[in-house]
């Protein structure tokens, strides 16, 4: 009796998100092929790797040929490469989502067209244009590169008129956007999933804390008053893009409701706690979505927290001294500002979760 071959998933990118996708899919009987230029890609131990640049056409063709469906673990691959894949196979999410997410002006334009509130913003392509934008929007404001900014990179905060020329000197070699500063109470995000069949699923909101522009801590917030509004905004974007897969959507919470910050067309750092904290993780649901399988429950198993390890991992024996801690190392070389792992805590309720988190932070200090 013959046995069907396991579905093979191609993943463009071999970082920790690709690694966690494979770790979610292997128990489902899936196999994985990664395309990544680094011979030391941290996803390498959990699948086959094609070592090549993301725009190398022969490598992309090989990836499509060897897999049933292709996805991506980060959004900064060339749109032309994504189009090349879709002409030869199936890529989820597709090129349109990348075109939007790779350019902050495209992103803000989409949000505005869907009636999703954003900070005031202006596209900037000259020093005079920046001065005019500052006059329009006022200070403080944030000057950002339109493309390729992440983890706080490619940004400058303008607090006084004297900051304008220095910010232009630092960032003006690339297309820019100026965004008005938002007086926000909290930063939150929602992980949402849309399947090839149009089925939708939403996770409870996460409340996020950043240090130096890098996510440090995410706390799940069951019954958050912003949940319905976040789901409504995410639904609009998913349906407008005919999106397939998991998407992270970051917001500022203000006295007037949610203000959209940005989307990430992939599984997202603020959803890592779903591995242990929810009935079905964002990684498994992303795989279900791109394969057209029914989505799994996103119900919380309790109150969870996710702490990023940035720069270096703590000693594993110290971390595991906390019996309810889940430790994730990514197999990456330590480096300042680099996400090298995370820990998740899951507790019966928010009060006990926060108490245990305090113990974790004290232990790892």
Which descriptors would you attach to this protein?
alpha+beta; 365 residues; 9-stranded antiparallel beta sheet
Q: Beta-strand percentage?
A: 25-35%
**Tally of strands:** 17
Largest sheet: 9 strands, antiparallel
End-to-end Cα distance: 57 Å
Following the backbone from N to C, one meets helices and strands in this order, namely EHEEHEHHHEHEEHEEEEEHEEHHEHEEH
**SS summary, helix count:** 12
- The radius of gyration over CA amounts to 21 Å
Helix content: 25-40%
Q: What gross morphology would you assign? A: globular
Low-confidence stretches: none
SS content category: alpha+beta
Average of the residue pLDDT scores: 95
Summarize the helices and strands and which ones pair or pack:
Blueprint: E1 8-12, H1 16-25, E2 31-36, E3 48-51, H2 57-66, E4 69-72, H3 79-88, H4 95-101, H5 104-113, E5 121-124, H6 127-137, E6 141-145, E7 155-158, H7 163-171, E8 176-180, E9 186-194, E10 200-202, E11 205-211, E12 214-221, H8 227-240, E13 245-254, E14 257-264, H9 274-277, H10 282-291, E15 303-310, H11 316-319, E16 325-329, E17 339-347, H12 350-364
Parallel strand pairs: 1-2, 1-4, 2-3
Antiparallel strand pairs: 5-8, 6-7, 6-8, 9-10, 9-11, 9-13, 11-12, 12-15, 13-14, 15-17, 16-17
Sum this structure up briefly.
It is built from twelve helices and 17 strands. The chain is of the alpha+beta class. Helix 1 (16-25) crosses helix 10 (282-291), helix 2 (57-66) packs across helix 3 and helix 3 (79-88) packs antiparallel against helix 4.
């Amino acid at each position: 009796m013959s046995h069907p071959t396991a579905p093979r998933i191609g993943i463009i990118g071999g970082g920790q998100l690709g690694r966690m996708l494979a770790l979610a899919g292997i128990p489902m009987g899936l196999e994985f092929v990664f395309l990544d230029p680094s011979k030391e890609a941290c996803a390498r131990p959990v699948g086959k790797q094609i070592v090549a640049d993301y725009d190398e056409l022969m490598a992309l063709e090989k990836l499509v040929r060897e897999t049933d469906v292709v996805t991506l673990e980060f959004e900064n691959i060339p749109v032309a490469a994504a189009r090349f894949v879709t002409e030869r196979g199936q890529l989820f999410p597709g090129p349109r989502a990348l075109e939007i997410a790779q350019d902050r002006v495209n992103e803000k334009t989409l949000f505005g067209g869907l009636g999703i509130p954003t900070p005031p913003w202006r596209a900037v392509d000259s020093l005079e244009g920046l001065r005019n934008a500052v006059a329009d929007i006022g200070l403080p404001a944030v000057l950002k590169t339109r493309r390729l900014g992440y983890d706080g990179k490619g940004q400058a905060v303008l607090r006084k008129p004297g900051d304008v020329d220095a910010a232009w000197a630092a960032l003006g070699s690339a297309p820019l956007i100026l965004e008005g500063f938002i007086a926000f109470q909290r930063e939150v995000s929602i992980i949402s999933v849309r399947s090839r069949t149009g089925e939708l699923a939403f996770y409870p909101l996460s409340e996020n804390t950043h240090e130096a522009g890098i996510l440090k801590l995410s706390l799940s917030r069951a019954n958050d008053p912003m949940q319905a509004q976040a789901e409504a905004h995410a639904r609009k974007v998913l349906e407008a893009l005919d999106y397939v897969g998991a998407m992270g959507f970051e917001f500022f919470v203000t006295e007037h409701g949610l203000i959209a910050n940005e989307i990430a067309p992939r599984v997202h750092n603020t959803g890592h706690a779903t591995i242990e904290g929810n009935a079905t993780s964002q990684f498994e649901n992303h795989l279900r979505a791109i394969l057209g399988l029914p989505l799994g429950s996103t119900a919380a198993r309790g109150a969870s927290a996710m702490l990023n390890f940035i720069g270096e991992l703590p000693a594993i024996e110290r971390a595991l001294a906390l019996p309810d801690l889940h430790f994730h190392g990514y197999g990456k070389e330590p480096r300042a500002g680099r996400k090298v792992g995370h820990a998740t805590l899951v507790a019966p309720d928010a009060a006990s979760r926060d108490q245990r988190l305090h113990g974790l932070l004290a232990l790892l200090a």
